Amino acid sequence: MNWLQWSYVAMLAFCLVGTLPLTHLFGLDVLRRPARLAATVLLAGGPFLLWDLWATHVGQWSFDAAQTLPPRVLGLPLEEIAFFVVIPLVGVLTHEAVLAVRAGVRPPWWPGRRHPEPSREEAR
Amino acid sequence: MTYTALSVISIVVAVVVDRWVLRTRLTSTAGWWSAYAIVVFFQLLTNGWLTGRGIVRYRSDAIIGDSHAQLLGDGRLVYAPVEDLGFGFGLVLLSCAVWRWLSRRDEAARTETS
Questions:
Q1: ipTM higher than 0.90?
Q2: Nearest C-alpha neighbor of A97 from the set A89, B109, B19, A45
Q3: What does pTM read for this prediction?
Q4: How far is B19 from chain A (nearest CA, A)?
Q5: How many of the other CB atoms lie within 10 Å of CB of B28?
Q6: Where are the domains of chain A?
Q7: Do A61 and B58 touch (CB under 8 A)?
Q8: Where are the transmembrane segments (chain A) (predicted)?
Q9: By the CB < 8 Å criterion, does A119 face chain B?
Q10: Per-residue pLDDT at A114
């Protein structure tokens, strides 16, 4: 195995490194709601994964074996399946972080920062 | 069906689900569009990595352009087929809408029991 095979993993890691800190910075509860998160991944990522499986099987797109890890599930690299967990998560984290900012929540190091308010559901 | 057609369907279905099925109406909020602006910028970067390096490759009869990944033009935007924008929009909007819908349901259940 060589470093090239981690090319797709690197992209997923980049997405997570960029968004997971948002939970701490803006006091998001996304990771503290595992059932809700799993349901979101299933309901939103699921249909897109099925689309991906179909498109891969009819050959609309394909994955470079040299730049992905060897395991395949139903013909897809594991990274491609992880994509449908990672992208819904980073999408939700980004949205929730924007809602928090719009509700006045600021990172801990922000000058004159107010304490995060638990009820920012109305903020749009 | 081509990726081009499915990409457009993805946008329409996600908007219909957001507005009329779950009634989350995120597409009417400045908050969601601000988040999408951030997401789409990083989508261009990360997807450019996947497609520019040929980690993911597309067959020419499924997309507007041909299978050669170029930076811009011939149906490509930062190496990725423009169709990926529809795929990404649908996936991200649906994710945020489902999350918000479930959050609202949880809260309603909590206020009922308390």
A1: yes
A2: A89
A3: 0.92
A4: 15
A5: 11
A6: 3-103
A7: yes
A8: 6-28, 35-54, 81-105
A9: no
A10: 63
Distance of CA B26 to the CA centre of its chain: 14
Q: Is A64 left (phi over 0), alpha (psi -120 to 50) or beta?
A: beta
Domain boundaries, chain B: 3-58+75-112
pLDDT, tens digit, for every residue of B40-83? Answer: 999 999 999 999 999 999 999 999 988 898 999 999 999 999 99
pLDDT class for A120, splitting at 50, 70, 90? low
Instruction: Output the pLDDT for position B43.
Output: 98
Two structure tokens written together for A70:
């060897």
As a whole number of angstroms, the distance between CA A73 and CA A69 comes to 11
CA distance B24 to chain A (A): 11
B7, B9, B55, B104: best mutation site toward chain A, by most A Cβ within 10 Å?
B55
CA-based nearest distance A60→chain B, Å: 5
Which residue is closest to B38 within chain A, CA to CA? A94
Residue A117 at interface with chain B, using a CB cutoff of 8 Å: no
Higher pLDDT, A124 or B46: B46
Contact A90/B at CB under 8 A: yes
Give the bridge partners for B72, in sequence order: B77
Q: B55–A67: do the CB atoms touch at under 8 Å?
A: yes
